[in-house]
Design a protein that fits this description.
alpha/beta; 3-stranded mixed β-sheet; 6 helices; dimethylargininase activity; EC 3.5.3.18; hydrolase; Dimethylargininase
Amino acid sequence: MRPGQPRHYLMCRPTYFTVSYEINPWMDRRTPVDTPLAVAQWERLRDTFRDLGHTVETIDPVPGLPDMVYAANGATVVDGLVYSARFAHPERGPEGPAYLKWFADKGYVTHLAEHVNEGEGDLLVAGDAVLAGTGFRTERAAHAEAAALWGREVVTLELVDPRFYHLDTALTVLRGGSGTAPGGTQPDGGAHPGLTGPPPVDLAYYPPAFSPAAQEVLRERYPDALLATEEDAVVLGLNAVSDGAHVVHAPRAERLAAALRERGYETLAVDTSELLRGGGGAKCCTLEIREMAAGPVATSGSAS
């Protein structure tokens, strides 16, 4: 078993979590939300990360922002540069400034987005590239904006199934999620023994969530990726968090978990079923903070 790479996460307690509006297929205002249960599930998720040796910071929840628990949507942090979220729906609009203020107060370099994007929901680091979703919540123009900010290749992937409205509901970066350090050195301090270059990228995704063109891009770039079944995708099994060795996932994604174990990953099932009422699982609740690595400045990339 490979040791996991220590990660730095930002999370938000679901103190005010409820379903007071409907902006995705998972939300139903007619079904009561058990907020104490949501908090208990969130605490178990946070504690799981800490037990794995990861650093977890928290941002204070804001009354009237029930979806603030989905921290992954609040921003994207690559090489220590924070790209703010600009939400597609006005109900979530104030979340972006709240998260950006948290980072600014901590001394991070922040960039106020000009184009609509929903943070790590649609921007996933995969090695030295960033996979970028579009089709429902994030504009293609945001992909170019992010590429210019980070100096990395940004690969556009169109989503076509409204159940998978964010990229992180249809695709999981299993290995390489912290990205390669500038200059191609390992950013993980030796979490992949024997490798002299960046760790290889490993993915799992659900093909029908993507347009035919996006599926072709994924097949060409990641021919060995794990393909998830609809059975696992519809319980948000792909909304998982991996540190390169351990994968925290929804308990009902049983086939996916078995396939991951066959690949050598250790799987940890953490129930986030109450938070699923808002359309999010483990990954939605987890924003990764990727610090600037030592080394020469990365070269510019381009949006695809």
